[in-house]
Amino acid sequence: MNFTKEDLEYLRSLGVDSIDILVGNMLKVNQKYLFDKNFYLSVAKISKASIEADENLSKEEKENYLDIKRWLNDIGFQEPEKMEQDSSEYVNYITNVNAYLTGVDIKLRNLEDIYSKALNLSNNPEEYQKLLDKEQKTAEESAILDAYQDLLASDIVATKMFSKDYIVKYLAYYNNLSSNVNSDLKTKVLQIPDLSYKNFFSAVTKSEGELDENEAIIREFINHNLRDVSVMQDGTIKQKEEFLYGVVFYAAGFIDTKNGKNLADIYNNYLFSNDLSSLESDTYAKEQVVELENQLYEARKIARNNLKSRYNFGINDENDIDLVSIKDYEEANSMPLADIKTKVKNYSKMAQLLNIKEELLSKYPEPENYDAESYKEYANGVRENYIDKILKAGRPKANDDNVYQELNEEQIIADLDKLYAEEDKLVKKREIKAETIATYKKYSEVLLKYANKEELTTEEQEIFDTIKTYNKVAPDADLIEFARNKASEYDELANKLNAELEELRKQSNAIKLAISYLTKELRKIEEEETKVEKVTNRKDLLKKFIAFGLGFAGGIALSCVPGVGAIRMTLAGLKLAGQLVSIWTNKHPNGKIDTVITNAKSKLSNKFPRIANGIKVINDKLNSSPLNTFINGVSAGYLVGNIFEMVTGETIFEAINPGEKVVAQTPAIDTPEPSAPQDTTTVIPDTTPVTEHVLTHGDTLDLSSIQQGYVASDSSNPVDLITSVGKDAIFDKAVTTPSGEIWYHFKQSNGLGYAWFPKSVIDGLTETGSKALKF
Amino acid sequence: MKDKMIKLNNGNAYYILESIQSNSGYYVLGASCNMENDNIDTDNLLVCEVTLINNEVSTKEITDKNLVKNITARLIQKYRRNALA
User: ipTM of this model?
Assistant: First the structure.
């Protein structure tokens, strides 16, 4: 969809704001998908129809691709009908797009200066060679050479590309002059005084009418002996290039023939070996070889002239100016100052980024100590608060303040109303104009009929009488003369009105275009609204993922760093997922239970409304989906950690940091570590059997009520016991572990090992009996 | 003990959210609250053992680190199962 300048002006005159915004939005394609030349080029290569039909593309990808296509179309690169690689339209389209994108790319990278120098270099092969051979190159010179290579790759500058076939072909043109074909034309060309390459180029590049006599002769020769000059209009770049090379070789042939030389062999050698050294003695030959070389560059330049203007268009396109700095701002913002200074290899880029960084840092100083994560957070803050809010929003276009505004539904609907009303008016105006034109034509017809003395019908006679009365024709006037004059007058009027009608038609078209464009945008906004819901879902998913990840990591930590601190830390990690529950066992001082209020739940809402509310909050937290995910993560992590430990005999942390002892980690985000419980006594590690316990070796106990115990293996997990075997368990020994815990080992009555139990478990069994604790 | 409130001799009070009977003892998940001011700490929960020694019922910190992990997981699991039922 294309608005012409006139269309836009007309629509603006109607006060249709959204059109300007739309034009700005088209340009925003660049901003939205961070301009990448190669990506844009590959999208350009796919036809719009295949993008739409491609089932492998996601809906979002499709939209992105089509946006880029639309953007290219709006700039003026219309997709050819045949998107086939061999078709000349396709080649021209892609080469033009490539040139334009290269231009934009250069501008976005702020390298216009370097590239314009590289471009100049391409017109000056000697300079180029000199620079290439230079041993100590400055940073700028290297950059220029890189740019030159880049331009070469984009087909923008001329280069020498000869294969053997081409050399044979071109030398045949050169030698063609000695044959007798079209000898008349040949003689005529040879008779031209001061024959030069320039004559030949002019002969094939000028339009027919501008040619002088000599150039016309040359063109005729070329038309007959090479191919029709029209290739310069219709041909692909490659065809133009080949054609112009042919012209150069013909020119060389003529110039040499005129000078009485034949340098075919010399050219052949040079073009193959690229070696001028054997020519040192022959000054003429050397000069001619260099000249030929220069002219071939010239030919290539002419063939690509159109391209270069495209490329320049890319560079100078006013509409893209803002994109440069926004992208650079984002880049400078995402990198720490130190990184810009050390990691950016391109000096001019570095200087530019440093400049921007300085501005950003003056407003938002860098955090003193940061890691990748915290820097990202800082950079996000700057982007949201400064780049997005102030720079993007507050950066008006040179001629249009609205360009970066978002289109909103209301605006579009208001504009559409305006456009429909205007369209109605235009339709009426056009009807009236068309009627008037028809009337004038009828008048003129009647008048001419009268002037030609043809017989008028009654109706026509009436018309003629009306005209006479209306023009107050004197009775004695020459009616035939009057009729003839008046007829041409009415014709003129009709023509004038026709032109006006044409103008109205144009306005109508602009309006129709705008209506269809705005309707599409409106539909897009509506689709966008439904999309927002999906995004929300995606965010939820992400939250879940984070919760699971935290749990997983926590589970792994738990598997090798057992302890309250670890539990508190991992559960507190939920804060990041939006929920916070810490669980403590030692934060609350032990005490004797004095009062027990039963049925508290039913009393709560009356007596303790805030506690009741708090219970609900806790309930929500404990049943929340992130906690659920988190707990699943913990068990998964715990499992993985334990399996790892079982298989390798090492904890994961030991495996990661060999030689380092794992210590419970102090969480950075939460309340201070719990103070050590006051009643803990320091236990000196001792692995010898402890004798002062109540139990002595050989005592028999009934352990059948204990369903789980520990067996001697690397695993610290309890195992299910066959409880009948525990009926007559025999106390074997007690061991104090380095952490101060006392463990009892029991054997079965047949003397085989049974299980290990913590002292507290056995104490509970022997002293109080856990069943007594039921309230 | 689920859904009961307990008050200790040291002045602390807890709302018991969940309890489990295990081979090694009796454990509860509680939230610290203040009955006088009608306040409850919803951020820091308590996991402890409840013991009966010399006919006195007391809360007791769980010193076995492995036990803490298991008990906490089981208490939360049970709480959630009950809440869903």
Answer: 0.92
